Amino acid sequence: MKIRCPRSTFAAALQTAASVAPTRTPREILKRARLTVTDGSGVLFATDQETSIRQAIPELEVEETGDVLLPVAETTQIVRELADEAIEISSDGSRITLRGAHSEFRIPEVDPQEFPEVPDTEGSTPFSLDAVSLRNAIRRTLFATDTEGPRYALGGVLLELRKDRPVFVATDSRRLAVARVELEAADAATGPDKPLVPAKALQLVDRTLGNAEGPVKLGFRANEVFFQIGPTSIISRLIDGRFPDYERVIPRGLDHRIEMVVGPLHAAVRQAQIFTDEETRSVTFQLQPG
Questions:
Q1: So what's the pLDDT on residue 174?
Q2: What are the residues whose beta carbons fall under 8 Å from the beta carbon of 235, sequence distance 6 or more?
């Protein structure tokens, strides 16, 4: 294998892979990312066997196709330290060589066949979600998950895949957050009944979205969920657990309704929480007419 590409492009792809590849694991192979190069294109894969990422790499000059396993931490440091505009990556079957204009780094090669298989995203008809709406829904529910408690199902966000407007729900048994997502299209979309998506996967989706706009693909295959965000695919196993019947705790009718301006309310709560108790973290509201 032999390729050449802009250093900044490859650095961005490595950074994405590093968000999944574990730094501490008994399986050394998971600390690597698989670079697969075909005619005119390259894809970087990384996984921790719960969450996987597939990152397409544009602007490649391909001399020879092939597969290599790159140690994520070391390769990231090398690419970061290079000052060249382009980087060349090649493999002779026993070692991987990274070259800049005035530098050369050699890394012992590992058989790419030892790398775990990254799940495929084919075989389903995905939903098309609005990126801004999805990002808002994740941020409005993720904080209410419980990733440390014994109830495994509370460590994720419930997705109710309604045809008109999907609903995201999270709770840690003390807080409940419900948010709705705007659909771009869902005419033939299919998915499981109320899947539970791990909080870690949604954190990665939120980070990948950044300030992106436009459609995001959301699909399901077997016991996995995938998000397609531009050149990036994020695949995660679904949580196998029973989520509480959240609708039972939402009041059907309200005796009182108060409208408030978000900014001043947020500022007041942040100021009051300075003196909250470490166990309850509660803030008491006193409401008066006018």
A1: 86
A2: 51, 52, 53, 54, 118, 119, 121, 224, 225, 226
Spell out the residues 6+ positions from residue 254 whose beta carbon is closer than 8 angstroms to its own. Answer: none
For the record, the structure tokens of 149 come out as 């408690």
Please spell the DSSP secondary structure of 119-132, one letter per residue.
PP--SS--EEEEHH
| CA pair distance 78, 10, nearest whole angstrom | 11
pLDDT tens digit sequence for 78-105 = 998 888 899 999 998 899 999 988 889 9
Residue whose C-alpha is closest to residue 30's, from 10, 52, 3, 63: 52
All structural domains of the chain: 2-114 (3.10.150.10), 127-247 (3.10.150.10)
104 vs 119: CA distance, rounded Å:
34
Dihedral angle, C-alpha 156, 157, 160, 163, nearest 10 ° = -120
CA 10 to chain centre: 19
| Residue 255 DSSP symbol | S
Gap between the Cα atoms of 6 and 122, Å rounded: 30
